[in-house]
């Protein structure tokens, strides 16, 4: 498999500090976006811990089945949760901290995603943008129950209230997604500083603009900040340039 990628995080317009973290390990095909909470210092610590620990703990080996890979990713996210939670208990100034975590791993012809919180993953294929993950949020629960429309949820006063995060309790259950990849696919990971400011059509227009990945990341962040920039904005883009034959080999980054 060959792919290219780009990433950037930005403080936004309103916030004084950046509590988002991201990890982009192109040689491993591993990408993480984490959006911390719990105050400036604590949120920043939680998101950094999540990205780092997940990368340390998630070490897929050649020949693993999808079930084994999913189990290992769940275990890695739970390990991050345990470490962050224990730190909230041992350090008074870290109490109440937590973070979202959305993890993408590229496999031969497939993707694997683990998610907790409301940082999202999207897939653009053939000009159609699809949200691959579902938010763990109050408003998403209301949409699922038929009490809010997606449009109402976007502007609801509790739109930023999440119902599941990494580090707030002794254990966490991530959602896991697996899907196929095609040449030309464009994958997006983003914190809600992007998706809270831009609707899906805004995002799709930028992702189909023909810009190179670095300029596309910049354009997404500029657009979010132009709409208000109420939160930190973190964006990772990954373009699939060639899919591997079904040999079970791990992905390799093209320079």
Note the total helix count: 7
Q: How many E strands?
A: 11
* Overall pLDDT: 93
| Main sheet specs | 6 strands, antiparallel
Element-level helix/strand string: EEEHHEEEEEHHEEHHHE
Low-pLDDT parts are: 248-255
Helix % is 25-40%
CATH topology: Phosphatase 2c, domain 1
Question: Can you tell me about this structure?
Answer:
This protein has 255 residues and is an alpha+beta fold. The chain has a single domain, classed as PPM-type phosphatase domain (Phosphatase 2c, domain 1), CATH 3.60.40. The protein has seven helices and eleven strands. The strands form two sheets. Strands 2, 3, 4, 5, 6 and 9 form a six-stranded antiparallel β-sheet that branches. Strands 1-11-10-7-8 form a five-stranded antiparallel β-sheet. A hairpin with a 2-residue loop joins strand 7 and strand 8. Helix 1 runs antiparallel to helix 2.
Question: In terms of topology, how is this protein built?
Answer:
Layout: E1 2-10, E2 20-25, E3 30-37, H1 40-57, H2 66-90, E4 98-99, E5 101-107, E6 110-116, E7 120-125, E8 128-131, H3 138-144, H4 150-154, E9 175-180, E10 186-190, H5 192-195, H6 200-207, H7 213-226, E11 233-242
Antiparallel strand pairs: 1-11, 2-3, 3-4, 3-5, 5-6, 6-9, 7-8, 7-10, 10-11
Summary of the model, kept short:
With 255 residues, the chain is an alpha+beta fold. It is built from seven helices and eleven strands. The chain has helices at 40-57, 66-90, 138-144, 150-154, 192-195, 200-207, 213-226, and strands at residues 2-10, 20-25, 30-37, 98-99, 101-107, 110-116, 120-125, 128-131, 175-180, 186-190, 233-242.
